[in-house]
Amino acid sequence: MAAVVGTSELRRPAVLAVETVAVAACYYAAGRLGLLRQLVVEGAIFTPIWPPSGVAVAGLLILGLRSWAGIALGALLVIMSLTSLRPVVLVNLVGNTVAPVCACLMLRKVGFRNDLARLRDGLALVFLGALTAMLLSSTIGVGLLVVTDELATDSFWPVWLAWWVGDAMGVLLVTPVLLLLYTLRSPPGLARWREATGLALITLALVPLATHSHISVLFLVYPLLIWAALRFQLAGSMVCALFASVLATVAATDAVGPFARLTRVEVMIKLQAFNGTMALTALLLSAVITEQRNTRRSVERACQELVEVLEHLTAGDAPHNRPAKEPDGPPPKEP
């Protein structure tokens, strides 16, 4: 017994260390991907989509609060890849760590479920995990720039808005995809694979056209989102939304297609409005459809169980309700 207990106690720190390194590596990799595309607002550089915020929230929801150390380590590695390590950098590190932790705490408080099978889960992720919790990281980060005189006071609100929306987009687009990969169990059947292949081919052809055409046809993406949500729920809609968002971000940072001949502020507003409405449409529509299907299956299951109970009761009452069999032979004579 002592050997078993000792092995278990040694295994826990090892597992925690592996989880911490894995979360830090994913956070750092997501940060490097996010830094590939940048926009400039009021002289400050920001990323339209900050994937590490989505990685951090997903890691906390899947692994628990113990993964905060991996988030802090990953954020530190990203910051060190951009600038030298200074005392003021630690404040920004705190903001990047505290924001996803608060998101996780608020989501757990309202009974959030990782499968996003209810409308309330989608609404909680949008309004608590993305829009509310990410206020901390943007406020701390931009406030630090103002305090250290790296940003003018007049530029606080535009830069703060760009920072906040970028972090929120990371949660809205990346977190559902990671939660989906974690909760995915069985692959679809052959017929569904054929439809999924057709949807993927149309998406690969239509989304680049919509995001890079000089004619503003970004609305062509929404029928694809609706199709994906109706047929494949979260798995289809969020992957489609993430792909369209990445291509739209590439077009915006290159100032091509519908983002050509726009000012930097106009590019930010148009891009984030498109990404936000697309993420909300995909997330909430798929949550509503999944919830309705689960409700219908529950009703069908309850009806089937009720039919089985009635059949069992009817079979058990049949011998008692059957009339008594008359004896053979002539009836008895009356005296």
Describe this structure in words.
There is one protein chain. The protein is mainly α. Helices cover 76% and strands 2% of the residues. The protein has 10 helices and 2 strands. The chain has helices at 2-34, 51-63, 68-82, 87-109, 119-132, 134-147, 156-183, 190-212, 221-254, 264-321; strands at residues 39-41, 44-46. It has a two-stranded antiparallel ribbon. The protein is globular and about 85 Å long.
Total count of helical runs of at least 4 residues: 10
SSE class: mainly alpha
Q: What is the strand content? A: under 5%
What sort of overall outline do the alpha carbons produce when their principal axes are compared? globular
Order of helices and strands: HEEHHHHHHHHH
Q: Output the strand order for the largest sheet.
A: 1-2
Measured between the Cα atoms of the first and last residue, the distance is 88 Å
- Largest sheet entry: 2 strands, antiparallel
Fraction in helix:
over 70%
Q: What is the average per-residue confidence, as pLDDT, rounded to a whole number?
A: 86
Rg from Cα: 28 Å
Stretches where pLDDT falls below 50 for ≥5 residues?
1-5
Chart the SSEs and their pairings.
Blueprint: H1 2-34, E1 39-41, E2 44-46, H2 51-63, H3 68-82, H4 87-109, H5 119-132, H6 134-147, H7 156-183, H8 190-212, H9 221-254, H10 264-321
Antiparallel strand pairs: 1-2
